[in-house]
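Deadline looming. Please check this record:
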Amino acid sequence: MNPEPMNDNLIINIDNLSCSYSRNEKDKVLFIRNLKLERGKIIFLLGASGTGKSTLLETLGLMNNTIASGTVQMINGAEQYDYAKLWNSSSVDDVNKIRKSALSFIFQNTNLMENFTAYENICLSQMIKSDVVQTKAMDRAVLLMRQVGLPESDVGYNTLSVNLSGGQRQRVSFVRALNSDFKLLLCDEPTGNLDEVNASELLNIVKQNLASDKTAILVSHDVNLALKYADQIILITKNKEHGFGEISDENIFDRGKWTALTPDELASFRSNIVKLFLPDTTKLQHPGTGEQIYKLKTENTYAKLFRKKEGQVLLGKSYSNLFILTLIISFTFLAIGFANGALEYLNVKIKDPFVNWITIPLPSSKSSGSAFHQIMDNLNDRKVRNEFYIDSVTSYKETQLLFFPVDKEESEFSKGRILTFDDPIAHDLFGPNNLIEGDTAFTGENDLGIVVTEKLLKRLGYDKDAKFIYFDDNDKNVIGESKTNFKVPVPVRAVIRNIPNRNNFLVTKFFYLSWLAHEDCVFDYNFQKKRIIYFVGDDKALVKEMQEEVINNFSKLSEEIPSDEMTIDYEEYDKLNTPGYALSVSFNTAPEEAVVTEKLAQRIEKLKIFESNKRNIFRVFDLDIAQQQPENVIYDYLSINFKKLDKIEDFSKYIVKSLNSSTVKSESNIVEVDAGIVKEKNNFNYMSKMTLLISSLLIAFSILSILLFISNLLKKHLNKVKSNLGTFKAFGLSDKESKSIYMTIMLRFITISILISLVASFLTGKVAEMGFASQLHIEDQAEYFRLFDAQTYGVIAIIIAVTIIVSYYNINKILSKTPGDLIYNR
């Protein structure tokens, strides 16, 4: 790449060059056998339209690869560049290097960035070429602006290009070209839109600013200007036989050839010359002389300047584009938030025992024995479970207990179920969506505690964190002169929201059998008459104080039992989910009647210390005396859990067909699923799928809207400024740099929109949620609007990815073109 230069005075050497935009010799539009261009000259290319003047300019300016054959060489000091090899190089940086180091441009269309100031447009050429900040390019820019008659008083530092007149814009484009380091200045009809006076003035300035090592090539139709300023005129003619332009040696004129003509000869050559009026150039100020220039201090690089200015344009006037995109994304996030809320609600309901569990009552004839086992084997068959998406099949027993409301003597019935430790429904019953109070459920298979629903506690008047609930074992006795129902205290292990089939409590099989035995069981007062126990809580000082008070007042408390027959002590108590102590009053010999024990208990509870600590002291039963009872449980319900509800109706038909004999005549012996439950499950299944589908379609539509908006916005803007960008590419702005600039702008654009949209949609959604909550009466735990979750983050990732893809596609499609194609809108 660095051979010996051919000629110290040459800058361009052309040999047998055929130019074609298809790079096919047959389609050539220009042929040059031999052309040598020297340094330090102004060269005019003249010719009719279509002869190839602009084509030659594009070729020499590396704006397009039009070389079908032949060679074009640039000699730049000790370096010599072969254009064909540059274009065929695998590195685009080689072409860009020449653009930056050697080339500058003036076009008939000024190609100024309208949203940039005049000075920013001027400085950009040098900023791109030398990678300097704007401040470094300002001194010469100010001097050149004064030279072209645009001092700071006419065009201020903050004057936007869009506010300049046509003549001012043309002058600014001249200054932009001259305010950069170059060896070859290429001008395509630079004075085409100017009158003769202004054209002469600007060409005079160009001539003044050309050093001995700088060459200017001007494409023009103006012979007068050429005769006045050209050091060399090259006439491009059209080959009449083949129709392409060509340059012949006889059509290359050095200045000495026409300056030596006689007046008559010159007159014939200049038949169309008009009398020119040139301004007094003696007053023009040259760069590097005169007064100190005021510097506009700015550390903007060209990339930073582009990002700032073009970012402002893409945001829209008064941020209109940002507002529209933010509005679209906000609606997207609102749709996601409410969809997430609906889906989360449905998800909670799916995990709720009321939804994916169904109960089927078993007739007495099929609730035990071989008939029962046959049903269980049928439904647990792998083929049946797979066909209907069955997760588990179990059976259970329902029972009823009498519970005492708070501060009332009359008990109330409530229905509950027996829960075994291997019952799969326990996972849902004590899961986070259903558990309200309590860290664990039953402590073991022989647990005598109870799990109750929040609804049952509320109905009976108990607090949500109640440690005991009292039930009636139907045993009555006389205390004093009145009959009293004994209240059996049962430890509350947990409080949950719901239990399937309208049940309100859960007990173990051991509890059920103990209660069923009734007499001489743990819940029988006659069985508890040997000992009175009070749970105190985790307060050792309080239990000691209680012990002392009971001992000190014992003579008043007991009339029937002598003091030497009783032991009053305390110990740690681990029968509840909370730590504490138990005060125990024990008898060496149990009284004959339970009423004796109960009278003593009532007197103890009237002591002062009990009255002042009612919320911390509870009567408990001695649960350790419970005995195993003979099993006598008939399971009267099937409990079936489904993985999904798609075939619930088919399952209902299967139950009727496979679990019932054709000879059954009594409806009481038929096993079937309640039709209402089937309809409810079908409706829920349909709504869950439709909610998911609608939310997915809304999100997809929103993303598509974002895609179209961004694509149209970017495409419209890039098509508007592509000739300007082509100009800066000609100055040396690389494809990689220009694409990076606009990709950064679009990523900032979408990021700002997303952040604003997240805040706006979150606030809007929460306000709407509060409005819905006051109007709709759904479960308290329901969340109508839920924005920040995995689906939202996924959609944000999709929006960013779509923005990157769409932006890159549009940017790459437009900015990958050559400078010539961009400037001339090919």
User: Anything to note?
Assistant: The longest strand covers residues 482-496. Residues 272-290, 478-482 have pLDDT under 50 and may be disordered. DSSP finds 27 helices and 25 strands in the chain.
